[in-house]
Amino acid sequence: MWVREILEKEILQTLVQLYQLDGDNISPTLNVTRTEFEGEYTLVLFPLIPKVRKKPEVMGGEIGDELVNKGIIQSYNVVKGFLNLTLNPQLWTEFIQYVCQTEGYGSAPANGEKVIVEFSSPNTNKPLHLGHIRNILLGWSTYSILKERGYEVIRTQIINDRGIAICKSMLAWQLWGEGKSPADSGVKGDHFVGDFYVLFEQKFQEEYKAWQESDEGKAVYSKDKKEGEEAEGFYKRIKNIYFNQYSVLGRAAKDMLLRWEANDEETISLWKQMNGWVYEGFESTYEELGVSFDKVYYESSTYLYGKEIVQIGEDSGQFYRKEDGSVWVDLTDAGMDEKILLRSDGTSVYITQDLGTAHMRYKDYQAHRMIYVVADEQNYHFDVLFQISKILKEPYAEGMYHLSYGMVDLPSGKMKSREGTVVDADDLMQEVKQEAKNIATDKGEIGTLPVEEQEEIFGKIGLGALKFHMIKVQPKKRMIFDPKESVDMQGQTGPYIQNAFVRIKSIIRKMDEVSDNGLNVDYLPFSLEKELLVLLSEYPIELNKAAQEYDPSIVANFAYKLAKTYHRFYNEHRILSAESEDAKLFRLELSKGVAQVLERSMKLLGIEMPDKM
RNA sequence: GGCUCCGUAGCUCAGCUGGAUAGAGCAACUGACUUCUAAUCAGUAGGUCAAAGGUUCGAAUCCUUUCGGGGUCACCA
Q1: For FRET with A576, which of A35, A153, A318, A403 sits at 20 to 30 Å CA-CA?
Q2: What angle do CA A116, A119, A123 make, to 5 degrees?
Q3: What span, in angstroms and rounded, lies between the C-alpha atoms of A92 and A102?
Q4: Cβ-based neighbours of A333, under 8 Å, separated by 6 or more
């Protein structure tokens, strides 16, 4: 903010002074100058014309002259309605020293605001997949960026650990698990349990198929089929009815759920054991991804709480009960529908739990804002949730925000578990690391390092590629994830940015200490050097934008731009063997500043920088 | 169908709170490593910014309509 802030202030002053404009009423448009013109910043003159009533050429000259007089700029040129400013180079020398000397350049001091970010939030019946990865990376980066900009941020997730799904896994394990555990079968806990969920579905399908051939199945078909309905379509349609009314396995799973809800000791203990396995698995995936949480909520302990909230709403007349006992809220005034909050049998639905969880969180933390990182298929759900919170006049209602992101597709289309096209998170991370290894082995100085260090670097590069690939896309946009592209390490990728950093590190290793003394303020930077300086000066502004808009892709694209400009600079100019001592010192300082900002911005995206690659 | 999001180069994406001739990467082709790490750089080629109207000094960007695609509209989560 350093350079732009100074410049904007001076320009405003100049406008007030020259044309007697009301300083509170104008906000001059100051852009970064396009590379084909001379200068670093450009003042757009068009909006000023009606106020000043002068031709842009004249006005530009007057403003430019005055800024030169003030010593802030060295020179200027006017092209059509654009006033291009070339800053006083001393400003840049001071600026780069400021960047290098400021620990955490780009960060903002604590602002006293508290934010809760919810992300990941898996079910315990399946391992994490590609969709979770996008969610987790988004949540994590948003957390980091907000923290960097001075917020107190609490990372949380809500785990869906109860319900019919986990009961299916439990039942399958009881029936066919032969008492095995993840440890003695050598399978990661979450995959172990997920496999039993899949096994249940398989066995259920087999059972269903057999039933369709049975007398009972045929009888139901001829009795309940619609006019002209084929058997195949019919059985597809009534799958849930079959599960609930006829299926032996379905009956058993539902009994299991009832026993769970009745707190049956044996059931609870099996449930704890299997969920425990899952959590171990999740934990290792999170660790591999480099993320962690401050607080975990479990639906098993929040779902009942939601009922109390509903009760309060009913008592105060905000909600109403229908004849069958179900409880509803009318949101038609807000342009939405009526929404059920409790089933006729008194059990809670999805949104009931969310109402309870939100309330519980506020009690725990009194956060000013609560951000939910959840895919865009749930947009309506969150509109409803937020609206109900407003109706209940919850103190946190205004601070709720749904960070909605588009689903991840494969080049072949949507991921479908039934067709086995779901990309597993653990597999994917292994693959990108392996790919990094394949590419890296004959590059740079890696081969000379100890094996452990090599592995660490492969991890940083592989995950850097994967994470950058996913974060660079705007959250709300649906993205197509091509596995081939995600392991790309050239061009607009994580490793490309890491490579810029590594080059700087290498130079610094080779720098002789003696020459490291003060900069000459009279050094005149080349245009590529000035491009880098402008980018560095814009960094805090970009970061702030990313924080305000909850959009980490802004940071990713900024880091890429900075790395790209540095690569160009690196090819164009010598550093250690620069044409003069002044140039060398300036470039070293500039490189250090770039390295610092690259490392710090990538860190916000959860991407680590290797020193060598 | 109602509501909502998206549509920019062959592909993946930037640019969107209006500013100069719409940018990157991948893929294709040409060049640059005895010189600070070539995971790099330079160059060639590639566009009716889905379409049509409107707002204005100026529109990929804002408004309206149309077309195409996704999501959602459960006593599922």
Answers
A1: A35
A2: 130
A3: 15
A4: none
- The token pair that represents A610 in the structure block: 């290797």
CA distance A54 to A376: 50
Lateral strand order in the sheet of A408-410: A413-414, A408-410, A479-480
| Chain B bases closer than 7 A to any CB of the protein | 2, 4-7, 11-17, 19-21, 24-27, 35-42, 57-58, 70-77
pLDDT at residue A145, rounded to an integer = 98
Enter the tokens of residue A405: 């992101």
Rounded to whole angstroms, the Cα distance separating A560 from A566 reads 10
Strand partners, A372: A118, A402
Residue A323 pLDDT = 92
DSSP string, A375-424: EGGGHHHHHHHHHHHHHTT-TTGGGEEEEEEPPEEETTEE--TTTT-PPB
Residues 6+ apart with CB under 8 A from A84: A33, A37, A38, A39, A41, A42, A76, A77, A78
- A401 CA vs B70 C1’ separation (Å): 22
Q: Do residues A256 and A249 touch, judged by C-beta distance below 8 A?
A: no
Name the class of domain A2-87: alpha beta
- Where is A32: in which H helix or E strand? strand A30-32
Given this model, what pLDDT does residue A227 score? 78
Query: In the prediction, which pLDDT does A297 show?
Result: 96
Q: Where in chain A is the domain with CATH 3.30.1360.70?
A: 2-87
Query: pTM for this one?
Result: 0.95
CATH architecture for residues A115-299+365-409 = 3-Layer(aba) Sandwich (3.40)
Q: Distance (Å) from CA A278 to C1' B53?
A: 57
CATH code 1.10.730.10 for A426-604: yes
Distances A219 to A9, A222, A239, A576 between C-alpha atoms, Å: 83, 5, 15, 87
Q: Which residues of chain A are under the pLDDT cut of 70?
A: 1, 513-517
**Looking at the predicted complex, does its ipTM rise above 0.90?**
yes
Alpha carbons A549 and A335: distance in angstroms, whole number: 25
Tokens found for residue A569: 């600079």
CA–C1' gap, A334 and B2, in angstroms? 14
